TrEMBL record:
The keyword Oxidoreductase applies. This is Glyoxalase/bleomycin resistance protein/dioxygenase. It holds the Pfam family Glyoxalase. Signal peptide: none annotated.
Length: 125
């Protein structure tokens, strides 16, 4: 059943045009398919995600999608060079320095907001 199927992340966008520009200019991603004027499908590695227009965008307080990389520092620097700003956290179990958390037995992680307020993550393992 589901264990044999690919999963797709679904992210909301209040302004699909603004979101499309963010994903293109900041993350280097272009839609692989458009489903009407308010639904964009992206491919990243072997994964896909849908970006769809809704007024509910930006209301989640949790990480909604993330990428895993073998070269964390290079990816973070590339994102910064494109204007991505990483969030700072100081809470039990998670403290960032210059936008990066180093987590024992897990690796590094950094979180940023897209143009619609969705929390995205990049991490190493």
């Amino acid at each position: 059943m589901l264990k044999d199927l690919d999963a797709m992340a679904v992210l909301p966008a209040k302004d699909i045009s603004r979101a499309r520009e963010f994903y293109r200019d900041k993350l280097g991603l272009e839609p692989v398919q458009e489903m009407g004027p308010e639904n964009l499908i992206y491919k990243s590695g072997n994964s896909t995600f849908l970006l769809y227009q809704t007024d509910n965008a930006g209301t989640a307080k949790n990480t909604q999608m993330g990428w895993v990389t073998q070269d964390f520092d290079r990816e973070v620097e590339e994102l910064r060079s494109r204007g991505v700003v990483f969030e700072e956290y100081d809470q039990p179990g998670l403290k960032t320095e210059n936008g990066v958390a180093t987590m024992e037995d897990v690796g590094k992680g950094a979180w940023f907001l897209d143009s619609e307020g969705n929390i995205l993550n990049i991490s190493s393992i």
